[in-house]
Please model this.
Amino acid sequence: MDNQTVCGRFAPTPSGRMHLGNAFAALLAWLDVRSVGGRLVLRIEDLDTSRCSAEKAAQVLADMRWLGLDWDEGGLLNGELNSDYRQSRRTGHYQQAFAKLAAKGLIYPCFCSRAERMAANAPHREDGAVVYDGRCRKLSAEEQAGLAAEGCKPAWRIQTPDEVISLTDCNLGYFAQNLAADCGDFILRRSDGVFAYQLAVVVDDMAMGVNRVVRGKDLLTSTPQQIWLHRLLGGDPPQYCHVPLLLAEDGKRLAKRDKALDLGEISSRHTAAEVVGLLAWWAGLLTEPVPITAAELAADFEWRRVAKQDIVAKLPANWL
Ligand code: GLU
Model:
């Protein structure tokens, strides 16, 4: 691929302050693209408007800038979030893609419980989510009409084929899933009308010309279904690069609850170069956590050197 055409993205969900795990994935996304002179898009993934806000998004953008991670498209426009790059403002695009898939006869209403429907909200799998058994696919038109008449509002699922979709991840190598068996029919639109992450992310990556996706390893299991959606919608799937997760000392994935490792706390005590150095050391790009800028790291960035295993985010003794 010609370096000019490389286009990566940051796709933060602004549901709280960025933590070191988010910063870790963002740094690697930036290095992946900037080390070859490519472009970066910044898209705000605020489909869940109950958890996300413009204020939180502005804070995420400020944290990225503080880290020295810049982008070329999206983010702010005249001081406001650019709505062309904000998922909560892109419903029309998702609607069109949904209609295209519906025209292929692949979508059906699902009247299963709310708990199941809410799974549309977040990427899943390794957290123990079950594969949907497809029971609503078997409902007759009369049964569907009856449930709708009772006031049940369906979510909308896509029927997955008995097909293996594989990829070669640039960090983790080969990965494959049989969509019907390992993933099952998944939700494209929730019963409250909100389009699911799986659809939005594919539509947006296609529309924005993204051809490199660097993100946390928790999303590896969503990737075969996203590749399949790309193909159904007539797009070329991007190259995926999944990065290890940062874990808290109890072995659980770093989350918003780990206040001590959020950028508010960290940036009040450390410089951006110290934080970037720490993240690069965890990533395997430095032999010790010394201050460095993202631009300095870009000079000799290579995926070969990036860690494959999850990392316990233990702060060096002089950081505490
Ligand atoms: N919005 C997701 C997050 O903040 C990332 C989704 C993606 O990279 O595909 O974790």
